[in-house]
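Minutes, project huddle
Topic: does the predicted pose make sense with nicotinamide-adenine-dinucleotide bound?
PN asked that the exact inputs be recorded in the minutes so nobody has to dig through chat later. Recorded below.
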Amino acid sequence: RFPDRVVSRFSLYLRYLKQVGQEGVYLVTSSQIAQALHLTAPQVRRDLSYLGQFGLAGVGYNVKKLASTLEKVLGLNKEWPVVLVGAGNLGAALFSYSGFRRRGFKIVAIFDKDPKKAGTRWANVAILDIDRLPETIKQKDVKIGVIAVPQYAAQEVADRLVGSGVKAILNFSPCKIEVPDDVKLQDVDVTTELETLSWFLSQ
Amino acid sequence: RFPDRVVSRFSLYLRYLKQVGQEGVYLVTSSQIAQALHLTAPQVRRDLSYLGQFGLAGVGYNVKKLASTLEKVLGLNKEWPVVLVGAGNLGAALFSYSGFRRRGFKIVAIFDKDPKKAGTRWANVAILDIDRLPETIKQKDVKIGVIAVPQYAAQEVADRLVGSGVKAILNFSPCKIEVPDDVKLQDVDVTTELETLSWFLSQ
Ligand SMILES: NC(=O)c1ccc[n+]([C@@H]2O[C@H](COP(=O)([O-])OP(=O)(O)OC[C@H]3O[C@@H](n4cnc5c(N)ncnc54)[C@H](O)[C@@H]3O)[C@@H](O)[C@H]2O)c1
Ligand SMILES: NC(=O)c1ccc[n+]([C@@H]2O[C@H](COP(=O)([O-])OP(=O)(O)OC[C@H]3O[C@@H](n4cnc5c(N)ncnc54)[C@H](O)[C@@H]3O)[C@@H](O)[C@H]2O)c1
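Predicted holo structure (tokens), as shared on screen:
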């Protein structure tokens, strides 16, 4: 229904509303939101109207109400069990990252093909052999998989996740992977953030 | 001069051009770029006109020429020495991440306050005590710092980086840090990508 760029703007609005809500702000206008996020007020109004949210003319939007609508629409009012594949450096950093838990994304199982890792645990979560992926996904009703394996293994891991019934994948490996149309793939690539820095330094 | 959202679109255009360039495409129109990236053709034309790039009417843009203009504008035709602070899980994953080197970002020194880590090395790069930051930044003419330390230490590390002359910071720690106006701060937060997944699954 919506392209990713619109959805990522919903996330931006939610983060902004949470921030001003904590500062005790009760109402915000589309121009205030636009100014803070480098957008135009018409763009903000159009985006929010998709969600049936229309601010009171001249007054604005109720911060708490709009934030809770965005949370519902982004599916953040639930707890999402997640499986992590790759118990290496990145996997360890993702496992202990507080940003996931805070938004209801809970890593319930970790998989690795290294026999020295399978059978151990991080905190209270077991690291299992990759062959136990299908049974765990069924047992814990998991829809989201995170890929933190080297480039050469990423497509194979994606195929195993899809084969086990996962419907959404967060891919940290730097290569293009293919998934069927009914599976949502989101790549994470920090080079865009880095390029914003080299741009700034080249001015 | 440009808000970050415009610069991050320049990165998107570059990535797209590199991809189609490899597939042998010689010319692209603004509509083709817009369609591939979920943007509108007028938005693409406006962005590229900022760079003095105007496609030939009805014919489009030369892929190789436009890509090399974008590389120059994003500062990617140089090598950027980078310091990494925090030799933990995330630091290790960032150090071995091929995506950095491919775009000319080279980690030249790693810092950590843990006495057991300072004095060791990863590949051919030394892990130094955080007190050696100022001399290293001067010696290797470093402008970019990456923060991969726990939340409680992030602001202190940012202050040390700024105090040593760094002008751009990539922050992975999940808290808001303050830097002076002449320093560019870019936070990395994968929750927006995760929220795109929970959005998709809630439809
Ligand atoms: N997007 C980013 O910002 C970013 C940053 C850092 C690293 N990375 C990427 O993340 C990935 C992991 O990096 P790392 O530093 O943690 O590597 P690592 O070598 O420390 O860890 C990789 C783990 O994957 C396991 N593995 C390999 N093949 C597997 C398979 N078929 N099934 C299950 N497990 C398998 C290995 O046993 C190992 O434990 C790499 O692709 C790297 O390029 C991305
Ligand atoms: N944005 C993201 O996607 C993302 C993902 C994973 C982790 N993180 C964040 O990255 C950070 C690092 O995570 P980690 O898993 O690598 O943690 P870690 O504990 O494995 O590593 C942290 C390292 O920082 C060092 N350190 C602490 N205080 C320091 C100081 N004042 N100066 C220098 N070094 C210092 C420690 O000695 C340790 O080696 C955390 O803030 C975490 O929340 C972000």
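Observations noted during the meeting:
- Chain B touches chain A through 59 residues (CB under 8 Å).
- The mean pLDDT of chain B is 92.
No decisions taken; revisit at the next huddle.
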